[in-house]
Amino acid sequence: MKSYLWVISCILCFGLGLWMGVRLSRPAEDHRKEDAVVMLNSMKDVLKVTTVEAEISELLTQQSYYWFDISPFRKSAIVRVRATVHAGFDLDSSVVRIDEAGRKVILRLPSEPRILSVDQKLDYYDLQQGSFNAFTADELTLLQDKARDLILRSAIKGGVLDRARKRRADIMASLQAMASSSGYELRTEKMPDPPSGLRG
Predict the structure, then answer these.
(1) 70 φ/ψ angles, rounded to the nearest 5 degrees
(2) CB-CB contact of 51 with 113 (8 Å)
(3) Least packed by Cβ within 10 Å: which of 39, 106, 163, 172?
(4) How confident is the model over 165-195, as pLDDT tens digits?
C-alpha cells in the first residue's frame, strides 16, 4: 500500500513540476488596457505654401529641488528634442486679379514668411525624480512647451525665415518670367500679415 502511495505521489509531483515548468516558460502576460476616443473638432480649407523645411535637434536640461539640493528633494530631466520646422506663406487671404485690357496680373500676397508648423519628438534621456519631488503631468506638459519654444527660437536664429524670404523672391522671379513670356506684366501688392503665427 505504501509503495502505491509513493508511486502516486511521484506521479503527482512529476505532473505538478511539468505543469509549473510549462507555465513559467511562457512569457509573462502584459495586463494592459488601452482605450482611445477620436474626436474631429473642426475642418477647414487652407492654402499655405511651405518654402523651407528645417531639421533641428536640441538638448534641453532642467533641474529643480525643494528645500535642499539632495537626492530625495531633487528632480532633473535631460530631453533631446528633434523637430521638423516648416516655414513659408499663408495664402488663405491672397487675391489674384487679371486685367485683360491692360495685360496685367495683380497678385495680392503676404510679404512676410512665418513658421507654419512644428513637428517635434521628445526623447527623455534622463528623468530623475526624488522621493519628495516628482514630475507632475503639468510639469511634463510645460517641458514640452519649453522644448517647442526652444525649437522655434533656434529655427528663427538659424535663418529659416530669411531663407523663406529668399525663396519667395526666387518664386516671384519665375512667375514674372512666365507672365512676361505670355505678354503680361506681373504686379504684386502687399497684404496685411495674419495676426497669428511667428514672423521674424
Answers:
(1) -130, 165
(2) yes
(3) 39
(4) 999 888 888 888 888 888 888 888 777 655 5
| Residue 65: Cβ within 10 Å count | 16
Q: 117-155, pLDDT tens digit by residue? A: 899 888 877 666 655 556 677 777 788 888 888 889 989
Cell of 45: 480649407
* pTM for this entry: 0.63
Query: In the 8-state DSSP scheme, what is residue 198?
Result: B
Query: 70: Cβ–Cβ under 8 A, 6 or more apart, which residues?
Result: none
In whole angstroms, what is the distance from residue 126 CA to residue 143 CA? 13
Residue 164 has a pLDDT of: 92
Q: How far is CA 158 from CA 28, 81, 111, in A?
A: 49, 16, 20
